[in-house]
Amino acid sequence: MIARKFVLRETGIIAIGECVGVAAMWGIFALLGFFDRSVLLGGIVGAVLSTLNFFFMAMAADMAADKAVNQDVKGGKNLMRSSQSARMIVIFIVLYAFFKSGLCNALAMVIPFVMVRPTITVAEFFRKAGEK
Predict the structure, then answer these.
(1) What is the pTM of this model?
(2) What would the pLDDT profile of 18-28 be if each residue is shown by its tens digit?
(3) Which domain holds residue 58?
(4) Second label for 62, Cα 20 to 30 Å away, from 22, 27, 53, 85?
C-alpha cells in the first residue's frame, strides 16, 4: 500500500514536469513560427502517453518487487519484460494512429517522452535527505 502511494506521488511529479516541459515546447514552437493545432494536440497526447507509460512501468516494477519478495524472481522478471513489451506496442499504435490521422505533429508527440528523465533528475535534486 505504501509503495502504491509512492508510485502515485511520483507519477504526479512526472505529470507536473510534463506540463512544464510541454508548455516550454509550445513556446519554442511558437517562437519559431510553427505552433498550430497539431502541435497543441501532439503535446497533449505525448504528455498523457508518457505519464501513463511511467505510471504503468512503476506499477509493474512494484508488482515485480512483490513477486521477488515472495521468492518468485523469475516471475517478476517476466512481468517486467511483458509489461515493457505491451507498453511499447500500445504507445507505438497510439502514436502512429494520431500521426496518420493528421491531428498531431509527430515531433510534438515524441518530445514529451524525453522530458521524463530530466523531471526525475530535478525532483531528486530537490528531494530532502532521507525522504522516500
Answers:
(1) 0.89
(2) 999 999 999 99
(3) 2-126
(4) 22
